[in-house]
Design brief:
It contains 13 helices and 3 strands; from the N terminus they run ββααβααααααααααα. Among the domains are: 4-117, GIY-YIG endonuclease, CATH 3.40.1440; 223-274, no CATH class. With 275 residues, it is mainly alpha-helical. The chain has a 3-stranded antiparallel β-sheet.
Amino acid sequence: MKSGVYKITNIKNGKFYIGSAKDIDRRWWEHKNDLKQNKHINPKLQHAWDFYGESGFEFVILENVNESELFKREQFYLDIFKPYMRDIGYNISPIANGGDNFTYNPNKEKILENMTAANNVGHMHGKKHSDEAKERQRERAVGRYTLEWFVAKYGTDVGTLKYKERQRERAVGRYTLEWFVAKYGTDVGTLKYKERNEKLANRNINYSYDNGLKGKKRGAMSDEMKRKISEQKRNFALRKNEFVDDLKSGNFSNNELSEKYGVSLTTIKLHKRKY
């Protein structure tokens, strides 16, 4: 696969098109395929192709370029040869923009109209599902999002983690008055909600604690603390792969991982959501 800047030249009149691509051979095939089917987004090139035919064009590679430099080198050739000028070439835009033939396209409004029309065909835009369709969807959904479904889709470790994460998300909003009413009805639900709140109120639990910072300003972080945090980050980056393996294995608790790798519990929970 070659990346670089290419040139499509009309050998009959000397006009040309300049472009760039990560895979030049495939890009040339795409150009020819669209032109043969009369659906190329560049009307200038399409009209010329229709008039002169495939034999009237020549494809050459101007320069092989690393992917990171593609737009920069394409812009270099656009600035020099100016193929976007009507009497010189077929480019639509004077800017190397990765094949954006829409912004400066003379048929922009027509293209937008066709795209909008296409998007409104064959989907549910402005429509509603029938009761029968909803019932079919519910039937197809049976068995989805179970532990077995997640394991089959993502594997044992990742699937189990994603299943637990979904269960936690679904738990949000549970045990509210609305939740009890929806589950048991107005009278029984309200009664169970009050009973639960009374039990919680009678528990001898102190939910508040003093961290020693109430009413105080923390102030700027000391240089020593900054150095310590930077060192912890560097050490963690070096052992990241080992950490991920231990995390996926499920053989360590959050506290054990925190102690082993010197990271906070918040960091561990964040990575658990990722993996």
